[in-house]
Design goal:
It is a single chain. Helices cover about 10% and strands about 35% of the residues. By secondary structure, it is mainly β. The chain is built from 1 helix and 10 strands. The strands form 3 sheets. Strands 3-10-8-5 form a 4-stranded antiparallel sheet, with no helix packed on it.
Length: about 150
């Protein structure tokens, strides 16, 4: 399978009701799973008990507790991951990063790599832009459609 076919397969899988998908072809094998998350978010729980009917005193008002913290909104446009894999900022450990914060890049310029199934997939700029933030760390796993770069169009 080529990159385009894999990307289409991921998009179809993401839109489906399936939780797991495994495809084997001649020399390749693809396993997709969703609904599995390594992130856990807990919110404070407020339990209230109704006051007994015979009590005529007014109870103090309790302010509602905010739910789980919301991820901060990213200022600017984002370039998102086209697949699940491991994000790398440089082509090899002993070479400099493709881009750094503040760099101005041209459409089609390589910004990083995502390794998926032992295949290195280059992530290219979709338009001329300036890098405002690089979200994942080097060698960090990324999810499909998760933001990789916050950019400003030029």
């Amino acid at each position: 399978m080529n990159f385009k076919e894999i990307k289409e397969l991921i998009e179809i899988f993401d839109a489906s009701n399936l939780n797991r998908l495994s495809i084997s072809q001649e020399n390749s094998k693809i396993k997709l799973e969703k609904g599995i998350s390594n992130v856990s978010v807990s919110a404070p729980v407020v339990q209230t008990t109704p006051a007994p009917a015979q009590v005529s005193q007014s109870l103090p008002q309790v302010a509602p507790v905010a739910s789980a913290p919301v991820a901060p909104l990213l200022a600017g446009e984002t370039i998102n991951s086209p697949m699940v894999g491991t994000f790398y900022r440089c082509p090899s450990p002993d070479t400099p990063a493709y881009v750094n914060v503040g760099d101005k890049v041209k459409k089609g310029q390589t910004l990083g790599i995502i390794e998926a199934m032992k295949i290195m997939n280059e992530i290219e700029a979709e338009f001329d832009c300036k890098i405002l933030e690089i979200i994942p760390n080097d060698a960090q796993p990324v999810e499909y459609n998760s933001p990789l770069f916050v950019v400003e169009k030029i």
